[in-house]
From TrEMBL:
This is UDP-N-acetylenolpyruvoylglucosamine reductase. One of its GO terms (cellular component) is cytosol. GO terms for molecular function: FAD binding; UDP-N-acetylmuramate dehydrogenase activity. It comes from Streptacidiphilus fuscans. Its EC number is 1.3.1.98. Belongs to the MurB family. The gene is murB. The lineage of its organism: Bacteria, Bacillati, Actinomycetota, Actinomycetes, Kitasatosporales. It comes from the Bacteria. InterPro entries: FAD-bd_PCMH, FAD-bd_PCMH-like_sf, FAD-bd_PCMH_sub1, FAD-bd_PCMH_sub2, MurB, MurB_C, MurB_C_sf, Oxid_FAD_bind_N.
Length: 352
């Protein structure tokens, strides 16, 4: 177990933003993780659990307590059941499952940065797959009960970019995640996402070769700056900065009226089914149509030149710079369309 004091956190995040940790502890076994959490809780010390730092905006003042960096390792396959230690690099685990074992279920989640342990936290998803579709159990340390428990998928309260773990951030530390994958003879799960289906020349609902699915997704993601590349500032982000708004039918009708008023009656805003009585629209579309086009911004924090949904650090941005841009966009979209965007990344010591 490694321990550092007054350690810089910015290099441990994909945004490369944020002040130092009072204490930074790196744990490499589940026992170490639990011991650090217990000790911090007993001492009444603030605790921040850190995976790959790809969904975090850490304030410029840093984090005064203990930052626990989870660096546990473990990829265990039993038939089609996969158990990953929380510290496994998610995209490497996807590659191994797909390329070495020919297993389907997480192939459309290739290239997503961060750790396996964080995937249930916001029910990571892309291109029609979400981890909630394959997770069977999460082994987690329950800080309230002071014990390690196994949480079944039904008890994870998975929703769009949400879960019980995100709802109760000071309660759970994920140690292991179990997935039920599928052996589909080298084929993917049915393609659900229209853009991915189009790219692969199939109709929605068809299966494609597993490796081809992974490659297509990586190509689509790279084109949007959504695969980490230290040389490319468009990827110095936390991925999508805002979630896609989910509107009630009444809100959606009011929104469509605003769209017609502002952009003309012939303009169609993206709309997707989002459960009974709800519609989801696209945050990226709203941002663009409110006038914040790709590359928007004049300072060190700007929109990605490849995707309006990624707020990026062009090299010297602070959390204050990034949040000023985020607020400008949030206000601009609300003024234009009456929809309040909600941040997807977790804010540490700051808020929008
Ligand atoms: C370029 C880019 C593209 C992205 N694309 C996508 C995408 O397509 N889909 C998507 O869903 N997300 C995407 N993201 C967001 C991000 O990759 C995911 O949310 C990822 O799961 C975060 O993992 P992490 O280990 O980096 O978590 P961190 O950023 O380290 O932490 C995020 C939150 O999870 C908590 N946490 C981390 N590990 C644990 C644990 N073991 N137990 C309990 N809590 C924990 C932290 O305390 C924090 O609250 C993208 C990010 C980037 C930078």
């Amino acid at each position: 177990m490694q321990e550092l004091h007054d350690a810089p956190l910015a290099p441990l995040t994909t945004l490369r933003i944020g002040g130092p940790a009072g204490r930074l502890v790196t744990a490499t076994t589940d026992d170490e993780v639990v011991a650090v959490v217990r000790a911090a809780d007993q001492a009444g010390e603030p605790l921040l659990v850190l995976g790959g730092g790809s969904n975090l905006v850490i304030g410029d003042a840093g984090f005064p307590g203990t930052v626990l960096r989870i660096a546990t390792k473990g990829f265990a396959l039993d038939g089609t059941t996969l158990e990953l230690a929380a510290g496994e690099v998610w995209s490497d685990a996807v590659d191994t499952a797909v390329l070495e074992h020919g297993l389907a279920g997480i192939e459309f989640l290739a290239g997503i940065p961060g750790s396996a342990g964080a995937t249930p936290v916001q029910n990571v998803g892309a291109y029609g797959q979400e981890v909630s579709q394959t997770i069977t159990e999460v082994v987690a340390y329950d800080r309230r009960a002071g014990e390690t428990v196994t949480v079944s998928a039904e008890d994870c309260a998975f929703a769009y970019r949400h879960s019980r773990f995100k709802a109760e951030p000071d309660r759970w530390v994920v140690l292991r995640v179990r997935f039920a994958l599928e052996d589909a003879d080298g084929m993917s799960t049915p393609v659900r996402y229209a853009e991915a289906a189009r790219t692969m020349g199939v109709g929605p609902g068809e299966r494609v070769e597993l490796r081809a699915a992974r490659e297509a997704v990586l190509k689509l993601r790279s084109g949007k700056g959504m695969v980490l590349d230290p040389e490319d500032h468009d990827t110095w982000s936390a991925g999508s900065f805002f979630t896609n708004p989910i509107l009630t039918e009444a809100e959606h009708a009011a929104f469509l009226a605003r769209v017609a008023e502002r952009l003309g009656a012939d303009v169609q805003a993206p709309a997707y089914e989002a459960g009974a009585g709800h519609k989801k629209t696209s945050a990226a579309w709203l941002i663009d149509k409110a006038g914040f086009t790709k590359g928007y911004g004049a300072g060190p924090a700007r929109l990605s030149t490849k995707h309006t949904l990624a707020l990026t650090n062009r090299g010297t941005a602070t959390a204050a710079d990034l949040l000023a841009l985020a607020r400008e966009i949030q206000t601009g979209v609300a003024d234009a369309f009456g929809v309040t965007l909600v941040n997807e990344p977790v804010m540490v010591g700051v808020s929008l």
